[in-house]
Amino acid sequence: MSKESIDVAMNAPHIATAKVFACESLSGLCTLTAAIGYEVGTNDRLHIRITGSNGQGKFNTCFWSLADIESTLSNVPEQQAFKPSVLAPAFAGRSVNTMYFVLAALLHCGLLRRADPVENGYVRNVPADLLSELQSLIAAGTDLSPPSMDDKPAHITLKVSKSAKKSAASAANG
After folding, report:
1. Which pTM does this prediction carry?
2. pLDDT digit string (tens) for 78-99?
3. Residue 25 contacts residue 32 (beta carbons within 8 Å)
């Protein structure tokens, strides 16, 4: 593991869970549980994650930065519809279900809405009531995070290659 990877891991923000909710998947075949969190010490760095599903299939439970998702949409004009494939770069290397589950959660929260006509995909939305509720929860220091949930943002990966483990072992053995 490089020094830079260690520095990123050590400086990873703590994400507290402000709101937990249930919603239907896009297909309607399962019910998802999800959470909206915030970086402790800030009031504007929001994250979303899927915490459970009563259906089949794998998905990632890590937090996804709403700023990173918005950055992925930066080439789409604000009121223009987009297809889910536009979000694929934000979820690269993760379970395909994850992107669609997060999309369902964003729809449920009102952060996205279906385009008109529906075949055009989705459009960004800014629900004032949700943002007001989140600001109140953040100001109160709400943290509904269960102790077993990993609160690291999705873009941080901590992997030690086998060769690094062997190098460390041989260095320790002299």
Report:
1. 0.77
2. 899 999 999 999 999 998 899 9
3. yes
